[in-house]
């Protein structure tokens, strides 16, 4: 029998931790982008990445599973948005293939973890 540890803070959730790691990677990558992208792709990518963890933390604070799931679903949308932006940044040569592959792989890991987290919610 597996005993599940009660999570008391959103920062204890593995998907939030991996998402935060992704935020840091995105900020590091976008620092290398040209200044003319500051209000374009840089801003969009940073907002998408932060939205992932922001919605996980907001969902954590909600009372009902349905309300929690709504925020987790928004977070999932932000993952897809960031993945698209990573592809664009790679295709217009703002980032190397290795940086892209590393960041995209991390985004897929966050995505898998978030799917599992959502599935673990009690059905209401």
CATH homologous superfamily descriptor of one domain:
23S rRNA-intervening sequence
Q: Supply the number of helical segments.
A: 4
Strand content: under 5%
Strand tally: 0
Gross morphology is elongated
Helix content: over 70%
| Rg on CA atoms, Å | 15 Å
Structural class: mainly alpha
Biggest β-sheet strands, sense, barrel: none
CATH class of one domain: Mainly Alpha
Tell me the CATH topology of one domain. Answer: de novo design (two linked rop proteins)
CATH architecture of one domain: Up-down Bundle
Series of secondary-structure elements, N-terminal to C-terminal: HHHH
Mean pLDDT: 94
Low-confidence stretches: none
What is the end-to-end distance? Answer: 24 Å
Would you mind describing this structure in some detail?
This protein has helices spanning 14-30, 38-60, 65-91, 97-119. It starts with 13 loop residues before the first helix and ends in a 5-residue tail after the last helix. The protein is elongated and about 45 Å long. It is 73% helix and 0% strand. It has a domain at 37-119: 23S rRNA-intervening sequence (de novo design (two linked rop proteins), Up-down Bundle). The chain has 124 residues and is mostly helical. The longest helix is centred in the middle third of the chain and has 27 residues, at 65-91. It contains four helices and no strands. 27% of the residues are buried.
């Amino acid at each position: 029998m597996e005993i599940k540890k009660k999570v008391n803070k959103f920062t204890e959730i593995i998907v939030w931790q991996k998402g935060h790691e992704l935020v840091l990677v995105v900020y590091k990558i976008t620092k290398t982008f040209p200044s003319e992208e500051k209000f374009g792709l840089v801003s969009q990518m940073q907002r998408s990445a932060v939205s992932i963890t922001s919605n996980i933390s907001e969902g954590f604070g909600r009372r009902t599973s349905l309300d929690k799931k709504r925020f987790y679903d928004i977070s999932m949308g932000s993952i897809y948005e960031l993945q698209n932006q990573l592809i664009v940044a790679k295709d217009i040569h703002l980032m190397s293939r290795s940086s892209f592959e590393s960041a995209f792989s991390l985004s897929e890991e966050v995505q898998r973890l978030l799917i599992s987290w959502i599935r673990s919610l009690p059905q209401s």
